[in-house]
Amino acid sequence: MNAAEPILNSNIPLESAGRRFDAALADLFPDYSRSRLSSWIKAGNVLLNGEKVIPRHIVHGGESVELTVRMQREVSASPEQIQLDIRYQDADIIVVNKPPGLIVHPGAGNPDGTLQNALLHHDADLAGIPRAGLVHRLDKGTSGLMVVARTLRAHTSLVEQLSARTVHRQYEALVYGTMVAGGKVDQPIGRHPVDRLRQAVREDGREAVTHYRLREKFRAMTLVECRLETGRTHQIRVHLAHVRHPIVGDLSYGNLRLPKGASPELIEALRSFRRQALHAEKLEFTHPASGETIAITAERPADMEALITTVREDSRSG
Prior knowledge:
By secondary structure, the chain is of the alpha+beta class. It has helices spanning 21-28, 34-42, 115-122, 152-163, 235-242, 264-272, 302-317; strands spanning 7-11, 46-48, 64-68, 86-89, 93-98, 143-149, 168-176, 183-186, 189-191, 199-201, 209-217, 221-228, 278-286, 293-297. Strands 4, 5, 6, 7, 8, 11, 12, 13 and 14 form a nine-stranded mixed beta sheet that branches. Strands 1-3-2 form a three-stranded antiparallel beta sheet. A two-stranded antiparallel sheet has the order 9-10. Helix 1 (21-28) packs across helix 2 (34-42). The termini are far apart.
């Protein structure tokens, strides 16, 4: 046994009688997720009354528990000194405002230069947290707020909140076409049957729900507020394209549209905007340690602000 591996001791409370061992254990040690505890039970790292048992073993209450914590380095990425726009941080969480163009974590073709590399430089202890504390993601071209867990307890709590759909994630998007009213898109999303880099609405996909409402109408575009009920890959982009209002700049799910009679300034602005005009502007969740409500907002980035200003001016002149 490694001397650096702590041993935690406790007892199953009497009120847990009749429950599965892994469920009772999750209540005893909330720093660790149930899946992680279950894997430790299976590996023999958890003893009940000095004996190895299976996760579904039914407890009677009063048994002793010995847990050997065997953490591994959760990420292999290297720390990199990349500037972070931190909007909130304490001992448990960090909320960052991701700029457009920054990839969230390393992958094929992008081994470094990511938000994850930057986070590891900011806090080396994140190497011991799954995905360096990242519990959700934003596409490369999308800007805005993300919450990062700095402890295992915070990670477990935030993942549970996302699963329970209690995290408020609000976005702003500039879309093509003049919308007449807000609404809801409730359409399942799965991988595109041909293009493996894209997602698509498909009957056998996973449940996906996006709420949207109008903020400002322009001559051939609309500024909308979107709220995620679920968090599928490319969800807002796919759903808005599905209702025939693709996001400006999103060439994966739409194309360049130059409004009839557009000013030279608007034509240039649309041609030069090389990403989806989508910004995660608000994040609201329950703090994993204090239980308080944390609500953070982030202004739109300069490129999106300039684009919307040009669209507004063109609309007024038209």
